[in-house]
Amino acid sequence: MSSERNPIVVMKFGGTSVGEVSRIKHVAEIVREHREKHPNVGVIVVLSAMAGETNKLVALAKSCVDRPNPREMDVLLASGEQITIALLAMRLIEGGIPAKSLLAQQAQISTTSDHTNALIESIDARQLVSLVDQGIVPVVAGFQGIDEQGDITTLGRGGSDITAVAIAAAVKAQTCFIYTDVPGVFSTDPRTCKSARLLERVCHEEMLEMASLGAKVLHTRSVYFAMRYQVPLVVLSTFEGPCNPGVNGTWIVSEDELMEKPVVTGVTYRTDEARIVVEGMSADIGKMSRLFSELSDKGIFIDMISQESVESGAVNVSVTVPDESSLVALETFQAIVEEVGALGVKIDRDIAKVSVVGIGMKYHTGVAARVFEALARERIGVTMINTSEIKMSVLVPRKYCEVAVRVLHDEFTEFNVTTGEER
Ligand code: ADP
Ligand code: ASP
Ligand code: MG
Questions:
Q1: Mean pLDDT value across residues 67-76
Q2: 181 alpha carbon – ligand 1 mean position (Å)
Q3: Which atom of ligand 2 is nearest to the CA of 54?
Q4: According to CATH, where is 3.40.1160.10 located in the chain?
Q5: pTM to 2 decimal places
Q6: Rounded-to-integer distance, Cα 72 and Cα 225, Å
Q7: Under 8 Å CB-to-CB from 276, ≥6 apart: which residues?
Q8: 181 Cα: distance to centroid of ligand 3 (angstroms)
Q9: pLDDT of residue 246 exceeding 70
Q10: How is domain 6-256 classified at the architecture level of CATH?
């Protein structure tokens, strides 16, 4: 792929940014301002549904049936974005800016058929580029795609970020702007920790880890697209500061564009997993492998694994799995408990996974020691641990989640701050 870029920018606005009519009018002003400042640059807009709308649709389906059919679920879920794109397009048109709303089928966003969690396979950018060439602003529905059968699909919760970055890659946009309800990517969730700091730059690898470990400000797969297709990507506020991008916000860059490599760039947390413990089983590798092949046959993703020796040469084996598959995982283990010679199986949902992420971990030692010291000061016990080259995750009781985030955030103070101001 040539690295030459077209004079096009993609602007994505999340649910809060289009959550009310007054905000949709504000988004139209941001688009107008950009066009006036950069008359030779085309704008493609990608929108989410209004904040809370997709949740309402999920609840509606669950109030109607126990197990919504995935294909029909996607038809339902995709409807939220149809409303916002139409409203913004009509607002732009009334304000004298040519615009056209486009559903996934019209924007030619092809995906796999994995309903509710489809993957973008390709985007035929010709239609989008042709509209831009005519001076029209395409306003594209985020989060949705179309599969080989022509059925509507959705990309997973928070998936509008993926639509935006994938379109930016397909049209070879100069920049993809992710406008949201906070001024950028912070050293931790600014809603949980008041001393969170705005980061000026975060590298792809860090952002991938932070997103998958709980920083929902960007969807993990959007970061993957940005990295793979070298899409210049910035996260910024819809509501604060001038809309002149490049001044504000957080740039997601390649590692070699980072001036400094702090040991820890971000602290994240997730509370949407459960821990399942198979107690007192014999430490036999064949039996162990049986446990894991059963889960894999059911398509269950395992996150953390640990094994702890207990009395009489037996072990307790623990795994964490996503909440939504935890019941199936529990039943799966219960069904083979005798076969693997275990005493029993138990489940613990009151857990939180807290992680520290930083590219600097590649070059520094001592992170684990500082993590344990900081948690020990608050008497927070750790039940499981997971590490990679640039992250360390610990499992703690859920009631200590916020405290753990705060102490770890305060422990690693050398964040790459933009302004140095505390929020
Ligand atoms: P949008 O609707 O614009 O897509 P999201 O709700 O998906 O917005 O993501 C923005 C939210 O992500 C913020 O309101 C913030 O609470 C949360 N968040 C979690 N971790 C971080 C972080 N490290 N930096 C910034 N925001 C974060
Ligand atoms: N509306 C979808 C959701 O709430 C997609 C998105 O907002 O990115 O998950
Ligand atoms: Mg989002």
A1: 97
A2: 7
A3: 4
A4: 6-256
A5: 0.93
A6: 28
A7: 318, 319, 320, 321, 326, 329, 330, 333, 345, 346, 347, 348
A8: 9
A9: no
A10: 3-Layer(aba) Sandwich (3.40)
